[in-house]
Input
Amino acid sequence: PRNLFGFKDGTANILADDGAALDAHVWVSPADEPQWMTGGSYLVARKIAMLIETWDRVRLSEQDRIVGRDKGEGAPLSGGTEQTPPDFTAASHAASSSASPAIDARSHVRLAHPDFNDGVRILRRGYNYVDGNTALGRLDAGLFFLAYQRDPAQFIRLQKALSTDLMNEYVKHIGSGLWAV
Output
């Protein structure tokens, strides 16, 4: 699916048939505490407003840089297709950026990637919402974000990493909750 910024959403998500990844990152194991959570998961739900009018005024190349992926194909800016793993060492092919990396160090893709977060992965899914207009006449729209993880610390780790995300200029977190499921 695509989010309201027009980008494919959830490309690097854990797949439902990847039992090893689910066991490692999503399901609470018998070795974890508290014992009553064994076989369960922790759910984080967030409502995230997307500042669509502001985003739509940004050049496509800048949108790609912010996300770290090509908007049309969904491929990482280091090349390939949507499912190609990002290469964070690849240099940019842009003539004016020969010394810079293809994927910006503050892009969403890089900051959220397990390689930069002690291997942390979550099972995530975003659902677009549109609730009309705000009092200022702007779209009241965004992403209802769900994330399942074995330990809430995984989500906290990712949120700390995303604190410098270039995308933060275009999103606003409305509310969050944590549940033991």
About this structure: The CA atoms of residues 32 and 62 lie 42 Å apart. The first helix runs from residue 19 to 25. The first strand starts at residue 42 and ends at 50.
